[in-house]
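Backbone-to-sequence.
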């Protein structure tokens, strides 16, 4: 199938005026998650915030009742994954892009987490600070600045690094804290030997919300991390979503939805 017309149509700004019914039909029929753009940098666009204090309170009640994770993460069985690296040892966990309190409740119950840091939009951090005060959560720290963290053992990007306009600057702020592991889950990478570090795409499975993000050059991303003191442990296909990249075949030879783990050089797995 030739995706030229659909790519051009969905990349236009007027898609924000599309009724939701049209967006759903287009997505169901063509299963297009992203479309290419001619942009070189990320415009100012924000991922939609779909939570509030009541919803988070409901999550707390449901978790207390069922003792199960309610909102699935972009890394399946994240608690077991972390246990493979830390076992019963205590460690500090940095949840970048975290937006649901049940992950904190679940990981804190299953693992020996000393400090759980959460970073997101300011409005969400304000919300989580209220939750912390109401429920007196121990070892839970919603933060607005990475500089306020003393120590990180595991930094977790749950499908979010691609939305950071100045992602290298942000990554360096975390790298300065010398975490043992930095993990990126549910992120789009291409394998082509292009000079570019990334391409800018538009996300279409959330229309009419207009969201832009990066697809990263995997080779260059690994080199950047290596230059900043981190070596690759693995990259593997993320199976939480079947992302269709067929409409990028004219532009990129191979694009994948990946989980990528790095370890600080000199540390043992």
């Amino acid at each position: 199938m030739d995706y030229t017309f659909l790519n051009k149509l969905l990349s236009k700004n007027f898609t924000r005026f599309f009724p939701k019914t049209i967006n759903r039909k287009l997505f169901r029929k063509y299963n297009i998650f992203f479309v290419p753009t001619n942009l070189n940098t990320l415009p100012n666009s924000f991922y939609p915030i779909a939570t509030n204090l009541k919803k988070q309170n409901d999550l707390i009640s449901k978790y207390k009742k069922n003792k199960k994770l309610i909102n699935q993460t972009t890394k399946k069985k994240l608690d077991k994954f972390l246990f493979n690296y830390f076992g019963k040892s205590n460690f500090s966990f940095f949840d970048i892009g975290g937006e649901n309190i049940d992950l904190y409740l679940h990981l804190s119950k299953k693992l020996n987490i000393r400090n759980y840091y959460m970073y997101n939009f300011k409005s969400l951090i304000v919300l989580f600070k209220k939750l912390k005060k109401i429920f007196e959560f121990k070892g839970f720290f919603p933060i607005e600045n990475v500089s306020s963290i003393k120590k990180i053992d595991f930094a977790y990007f749950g499908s979010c690094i691609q939305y950071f306009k100045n992602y290298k600057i942000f990554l360096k702020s975390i790298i300065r804290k010398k975490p043992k592991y930095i993990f990126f889950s549910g992120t789009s990478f291409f394998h082509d030997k292009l000079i570019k570090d990334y391409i800018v795409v538009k996300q279409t499975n959330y229309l009419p919300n207009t969201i832009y993000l990066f697809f990263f050059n995997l080779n260059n991303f690994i080199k950047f991390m290596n230059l900043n003191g981190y070596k690759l442990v693995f990259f593997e296909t993320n199976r939480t979503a079947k992302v269709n990249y067929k409409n990028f075949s004219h532009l990129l030879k191979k694009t994948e939805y990946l989980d990528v783990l790095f370890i600080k050089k000199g540390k043992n797995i």
